[in-house]
Design a protein that fits this description.
It is a single chain. By secondary structure, the chain is α/β, with parallel strands linked by helices. Helix content is 53%, strand content 7%. It folds into two domains: 196 residues, no CATH class; 260 residues, no CATH class. The protein has a seven-stranded parallel β-sheet with strand order 1-3-2-4-5-7-6, sandwiched between helices. Strand 2, helix 10 and strand 3 form a beta-alpha-beta unit.
Amino acid sequence: MVNAFRDRLALSRIGLFIGLLFLAASLTPSLIPRPYLLQGVLSGLLLSLGYGFGILALWFWRYLELPVPQSRRVLIVGDLACAAALFLTVLSFWNASHWQNSIRALMNMPPVQSVEPISLVVVTVLVFLIVLLLARLCLRAFRYLSARIEPYSTRPLSRVVGAFAVLVLVWTVADGVLLKAALRMADSSFRELDSLVDADVAPPADPMKTGSAASLIAWQDLGFRGREFVSSGPTAKDITAVTGHEAKEPIRVYVGLDAAETAEERAALALAEMKRVGAFDRSILVVTMPTGTGWMDPAAMDPLDYLHDGDVASVGLQYSYLASWLSLLVEPSYGQESGTALFRAVYGYWTTLPKDRRPRLYLHGLSLGALNSARSMQLIDVIGDPPQGAFWAGPPFPSAGWISATANRVEGTPAWLPRFGDGSVIRFTAQKNALDIPGATWGPMRIVYLQYASDPIVFFKENAFYREPDWMKTPRGPDVSPELRWYPVITALQLGLDIALATTTPMGHGHVYAPENYLDGWVAVTTPTMPPEEISRLRDYFIAQRAKYQ
């Protein structure tokens, strides 16, 4: 069968051999369970990539003018190698459901009985054929251009010029047409979503709420996510019903992207609104950065309000309409610009207040919000009067501070749950609270990172193309499959797909952080006066409320 397929398409033996090895490895597990359709796309791309590597190796061999064996015995060996690779691929298809279930079991997901092998094969082959067709079109264009240039140049130079021209053409079509069109569609869709006003959610009647008639920020200028953030938080009555304590109404300030022209103007508007509603009169003040779409995770913010009986003020500033990964790709500086503007505005005013009568100041962010929140504060600027701490969840892999702390972790601690220094400044935690380190004492500024070992947004590594990531070494995280193996190139591309699927997991895994884990972080960072037994009951309450935040 493999020979008939190869001969019909005039495929290279070495290309097919390497491509089938790539295909077999593509079916092995990574961090996130994959549906068969996306698995088929990934497998087809890796089959194409492996085939391309084989063709490139053969071309280089011929370029060096080394002899290419063509004897019948060598050809038979090549066919046998392809057949062996095909057999290995069939075994991989046979084991694919087991490999996927090795992840699903750790995430308490129901097992799959099958990975739809026929559909998976069809998608894989279709993707491979499409890539093969495009590659051959590019090759034909290269040969055509080189032939037209050769009469006016040397043969090597004509080939270089022809190859360069094809590369420019492909890049122009991919980046200038397809990618930009896709980004325009995405921006338009997210912008339209942001402008939606839910008819069931009316502007707050309380004049002390952001978005009310008395507010400096109009209800429509909060954006969809801002209106959701302001209107969905617990009331003083809600908090009292759970804790039994007399509570205050939590303060939530949010400024949407359309509220003002520049980041500095939006930050100034946020500060003015904070002063209006008395945010600086609270005990806890949190400067928080949303994700790319402007979303503020209620599973992160609600536990803080309950933990401090509503004596909390939170402020956020939107910087994009796009999903976090798109925002990071298209407009990487916008989030940092907005985060810096907001922090400087709030911090600048906060430092003018008497130290014994101002709130404790904290930074917070999830995902891209964590990255931009961390970038918003330069230690040299605040070292004389630092905020009390920061709580960052799911920090994306480019986060500089996180990278440094992980790379310089205490020897013997795993990369997915490192310990840094003496634990006085930075601590890490996951599903199981790891913030109470025996013998460690917190310093005046506390920084906590919440991360799950199964979160590819945190643990993707660019060098995974050629090097096994440290987090794959034993001991592994509690929700990382023991069947996961590192393969050059392949594992990195699997993790790239995992990033797109990171929020499809059950809560408590991947990039979906659970409220009780946020609660642990807030307890460590903000040192509430609530007794431990009440904190334990509050933790049980949020575990029971998981479905609300999923």
